[in-house]
Fold this protein.
Amino acid sequence: MLKWTTKTAAKKNVRRGAALAGVLLLAACTATPSNRQVSLPVQEAAAATELQPAVQREHSRILASYGGAYENPRLQATIEKTVERLVAASERPDLKYRVTMLNSPAINAFALPNGHLYISRGLIALANDKAELASVLAHEMGHVIARHAAIREEQARNTAIIGTLVNDVLSDPETGALALAKSKLTLASFSRAQEFEADGIGVGISARAGFDSFGASRFLTDMQRNADLKTPAGAADPRAFDFLSTHPATPERVKNALVNARQFSGPGAGERDRAEYLAELDGIVYGEDPSEGFARGRRFQHPKLGFTFMAPPGFSLDNTAQAVLGLKDGGGEAMRLDLVSVPAGQSLADYLKSGWIENVDAASVEEFKVNGFPAASATAKGEQWSFRLFALRFGSDVYRFIFAAKTMTAPSDRTFRESVATFRRMSLKESAQIHPLRLKVVTVGANDTPEKLAHRMATPDHPMERFLVLNGLSAGDRLKPGDKVKIVVE
């Protein structure tokens, strides 16, 4: 999420050419563990004191990357009780776990080898019963029990994957962004064999704890359906990586989860506690938290910092910890909005020519105002991409728009200018009226249908598909009066 709480990465002068700027444009800062699994080497209890500073640093980085901790005592208690049941039924009942809910819409969960479990509210909202929640927690415990993370960290220390990738792909920003994002997952993800092993351990733990052993297969299926809604078929979008990126729900894996489940019970056996679980989900934040900035379609708003802007037509936006990233449908054009530190005495025109990006056309530099704010613009040319750069001084900060196009045309350049022209200060009234979307659990009435309930969804796109996925339903399923379902409301 775009928090702007640190400017460290933005303050560094980058002199690696326009191609590297393109990589920065599309990929989140590689210094931040965004959307990846992170872990520390397993340590014996005797070394716990020495480990604490490193653990705390890693914990702080995770919180910074995932919007901080999500405070909900009722849900926290439910998750902790679920973990206690799972631990007691596991192969290592002596292990201790600490759970942190993350204030992130991403569908993600991971564990450090020291037993610190993380689970996002996005994943919690997608689950439909306690058995599905337990399947995720048990899977992550399986990685800890099998010491997969420790093995993975040792392999990562003996390679230089990211450095090699950077050198190999800087000629193409789009490819570079995707490769850099994937390289983080390469370091973070587990092998196929390790995933299957953790699946097997997790299903066993969950079943022995008394939960429905088929929760894993249901949740894996819903995760894949949810991911399909986020990314068009065939699209290669480095921003879309989440739990599925490191825990791929392939048909083979879902099939394997079903095989594992059948070893313990048949369908319908074991606890699901759907009604109780849904009651605890009622009212939780859904999607992005507006207090840290959020995108609704092409519109980005940041009530806390007090600004808003509209992306060019055809763009979709994603708010990360370092920047607002945008990608045009079909590729070929992209954008990045971030915050940089520019000395008060340095003009914006001089900043654009200061060398943070090379190949700037000095003759293209111009100064003007955008809704009363000082601004400057310039163009730059790389081997594969052309760039239109903007810098706007907003209060004591400078906001930097970087637009990239594989083929820069007069119409595309005009849309970039028109987008920047929408940057303005939000009024106090506007900021006060912005609230997060939330889940609301409703009772199905006698005349309710999926179509009618989907019409009540406040999601900006695919309301019907999202209603079905959010409730673990398929097209054509009928609702029973009295059933509880989730909808998204303002």
Q: What stands out?
A: The chain has three domains: 32-273, 290-432, 437-489.
